[in-house]
Every structure is written in structure tokens, then in C-alpha cells.
Design goal:
Elements: H1 3-9, E1 13-16, H2 19-27, E2 32-38, H3 46-60, E3 64-70, H4 91-105, E4 117-120, H5 122-125, H6 130-137, H7 143-148, H8 150-153, H9 162-165, H10 167-182, E5 186-190, H11 194-208, E6 213-217, E7 230-231, E8 234-235, H12 245-253, H13 260-267, H14 272-278, H15 286-302, H16 304-318, E9 329-331, E10 341-343, H17 344-350, H18 357-365, E11 369-371, E12 374-375, E13 382-384, E14 392-396, E15 400-405
Parallel strand pairs: 2-3, 2-5, 3-4, 5-6, 9-15
Antiparallel strand pairs: 1-6, 7-8, 10-13, 11-12, 11-14, 14-15
Helix pairs in contact: 10-11, 12-15, 12-16, 13-15, 15-16, 17-18
Length: about 400
């Protein structure tokens, strides 16, 4: 199976400008393609994961990836998928975030001479003269068409700033610039980027009289149609300091039963033939599939050693087997104690199981807190330092826990 057919079989392809031409480009290894990453945080997330694995798949098939760091476009902010304007970041914050992205991308993509490239659109966008830009590309964009774009339509009721209105022009200019400088002939992006991507292909056609292509990746959503990659309202990060390898593993281990086969297809590198056989498994083996999914993805992001530790810890906690030494732990600090004792609410907050004491109080009062498998229902419960000497297991709910030491 060639790469384009494999992408289709895995359910990764959403929309294409010209399927036949794109198929020929990528199957013959003739695509120089780019995916853009705006630097809105200091880590990539699980939401970026599919784009990174797509770049890896296409590079392994002989195509040349360009990872475009959005140092320039981040200063405007993409309105796609947003109900409000993004937070304005400083140039220093954006540069810092870009450096963090680079380190994480190198785990997936092979950069180097005649291999993958990494470029930053700040290098050309920040030097543009506004009047010159308007004269060069302004006539190529129809305001009527722009306002019909899905990324703008959903914002019109609450208000779309002129700042964000320019985002499509900036993204289109990126493709136009890289088409000329790097022979970039193909852009990939999330399905919510389709309008912006078509803007780039149209700009290239109108200014240069040449064809460029775009393809969107199916957005990773659960069976309820919600974007995957968040837990308890927070992003699942690729940075181990923001989302530990264990928590990353647990996120994928706990995906809904209806989403497991889709996630294995779209995100792992397990051969498609093996996946099709797994889909025939008896439903009683669903947890085995979930373990495979979690282990494969944690290995890709954090390495096999960390994936094995996470799996051992999960089995120790939930299945009565595995190595308890790998269970996530946290040490209480001296300031957590008052007169030699610490109350249960502070334990929950210091362990990172609750964000605030108020949240911890509710968890205790609702009966969702266990200490060494004993339910704690009194918020006034306290513990002395020596109680934590050998480490105690604190659980909130069925899936949140920490080994707490002192």
C-alpha cells in the first residue's frame, strides 16, 4: 500500500484540492510540504500530535517536510475554532515558545541537509511593509469570499477584530513565499484550516500562474464530536514537565471504547493490516487495545522506557500487578505543615490532585478522596510528618492519584 492510500485507509484525509495530483506527488516522494505551528504556548499538545505523525509518515515515504514555526502569525492569532480573540503574546514569549517547539519536533522529524527543514515566518512577515503588502496581494483577496469562510463566520456574531481578519492573508502569504523560496508545493493542516489554505493556493495561482495544493487532516474528535487532547479542561502536553509520561499514558488508556480503533488507526504506526485484524477482536479485549494505544503513543513521545514505566504503574494501581516504584509521586514541603501536621485539603492541593483548597473541600465532602484506600470525609483530618515516611497513596475519584511522601 502506498502512502496516500495508507493515509486514506487510516481515515486521515479530510479535504483535498486535487486528489489525483496530490496522490501522485506524495506516492512518488515529490512533495515538499509544510505544516504550520503557531507558538501560543511553550509546548506542543496532543492536538498537534496527528500533524507530527503525518509529517513523519510522509518523510518516511520520501517526501520533504517543512515545519513552519509561526513566530509572525502568532502575533496576530488564528480565529479558527475560537469564540474569542486569542491572548496577545510578547515577541519574547513567542520566541521562547518557538524554541520549545523545535526541541519537541526533533523527536518526530529528521531535520538536516536535504532532509526536513524548520523555518520561522517571523523572518519574512515581520519585515513586510503594509502598503507594499496591500499592493502586492490585496487585490487577490475578495472580502465577500473571506467573510463566507467558516473560520470567520462563526465569529461574526460576537465580533471579529480587524487584527484577526488579516490572519488568512498572512497564512496565504506564507505558502506564496515558501512556494517561491523552497519549492513548497503542498500544504497540510487541520480540517478547520481549509479556508486559509485555499487562500494560499489561490494567491499562488493568481500571482504566479502556477498550481499548488492543499490537504486537510481529519480533526481528532471523540464519539461525541468533541476535540480530543484535553483532560479536565486542560491540554494534554507533549512536555513531560507539563503532562507527565504517566498522565499522558493514562489519557490514552482511558479513551472511550468507541474511539479506540479510530485512535489506533490515525495515531499509531502499527501496520494497517494488523489494525484491521485487531478490529475483529472480541469486545472483551477492549482494555488490551487501550493498553496498546497508550503504550504506542507514549513510546513515540517519551520513549519506550518511560512508556513501560507508565504501563507498570498503571497496572500496579488498577490491575493489581506491575511496579509500584513507577507510580507518580510528590514530596510535601516544609511550608505545607502547620504545627507539625498537614490537613487533607493541603495534601490534595500539594499533590496536584486539586487546584485549590475549595476544590479539595468539595472532593472530600462528596466522598471522592481515599488515603491508603480508606475514604476521608472530614475536611479537618490531619496527618503528622512521619505518616508520609514510606509514602502513602492519595486518590481523588477513580483515576486521579499520587504517591505522597515527605
Amino acid at each position: 500500500m502506498k502512502i496516500f492510500e495508507e493515509l486514506k485507509a487510516r481515515g486521515l484525509i479530510a479535504q483535498v484540492t486535487d486528489e489525483e495530483q496530490i496522490r501522485d506527488l506524495v506516492n512518488e516522494g515529490k512533495a515538499t510540504f509544510y505544516i504550520g505551528f503557531d507558538c501560543t504556548a511553550d509546548s506542543l499538545t496532543a492536538g498537534h500530535f496527528m500533524a507530527l505523525t503525518l509529517m513523519k509518515r510522509l518523510q518516511e515515504a520520501g517526501n520533504k517536510p517543512i515545519a513552519l514555526i509561526g513566530g509572525g502569525t502568532t502575533m496576530i492569532g488564528d480565529p479558527s475554532g475560537r469564540t474569542d480573540m486569542r491572548k496577545m503574546l510578547t515577541r519574547e514569549d513567542i520566541d521562547h515558545n518557538a524554541e520549545c517547539f523545535k526541541k519537541q519536533m526533533e523527536k518526530f522529524i529528521d531535520f538536516g541537509e536535504d532532509k526536513a527543514m524548520m523555518v520561522n515566518n517571523a523572518d519574512w512577515l515581520l519585515n513586510l511593509n503594509y502598503i507594499e503588502l496591500l499592493r502586492e496581494v490585496g487585490a487577490c483577496f475578495s472580502v465577500n469570499n473571506m467573510l463566507r469562510a467558516e473560520c470567520y463566520k462563526q465569529r461574526m456574531e460576537k465580533g471579529l477584530s480587524f487584527l484577526e481578519f488579516n490572519y488568512m492573508i498572512m497564512q496565504s502569504y506564507d505558502f506564496y513565499y515558501m512556494f517561491q523560496k523552497y519549492n513548497c508545493n503542498l500544504e497540510f493542516g487541520g480540517d478547520d484550516q481549509w479556508s486559509n489554505m485555499l487562500g494560499g493556493t489561490e494567491l499562488i495561482r493568481r500571482k504566479l500562474g502556477k498550481d499548488a495544493h492543499a490537504m486537510t487532516i481529519t480533526l481528532l474528535t471523540d464519539s461525541q464530536g468533541k476535540k480530543m487532547g484535553k483532560t479536565a479542561g486542560n491540554a494534554v502536553w507533549l512536555d513531560p514537565n507539563k503532562t507527565s509520561p504517566f498522565d499522558f499514558y493514562q489519557y490514552w488508556r482511558n479513551v472511550g471504547d468507541a474511539d479506540v480503533d479510530k485512535c489506533i488507526k490515525m495515531l499509531t504506526f502499527i501496520p494497517i493490516e494488523e489494525i484491521l485484524e485487531m478490529e475483529k477482536w472480541d469486545p472483551s479485549r477492549i482494555n488490551e487495545k487501550k493498553e496498546i494505544l497508550a503504550f504506542e503513543l507514549t513510546s513515540l513521545v517519551h520513549g519506550k522506557e518511560e512508556a513501560q514505566k507508565a504501563q507498570d504503574a498503571a497496572r500496579a494501581l488498577f490491575a493489581g500487578g506491575g511496579d509500584m516504584a513507577n507510580v507518580p509521586s510528590v514530596a510535601l514541603k516544609e511550608e505545607d505543615f502547620r504545627d507539625g501536621v498537614v490537613d487533607i485539603m493541603q495534601v490534595l492541593v500539594s499533590a496536584g490532585l486539586c487546584a485549590t483548597r475549595s476544590e479539595a473541600r468539595r472532593a472530600v465532602e462528596q466522598g471522592g478522596v481515599l488515603v491508603n484506600d480508606e475514604k476521608v470525609t472530614d475536611v479537618k483530618t490531619t496527618y503528622a510528618k512521619d505518616f508520609f515516611a514510606d509514602g502513602i497513596m492519595v486518590k481523588k475519584g477513580k483515576k486521579s492519584f499520587k504517591k505522597v511522601t515527605c
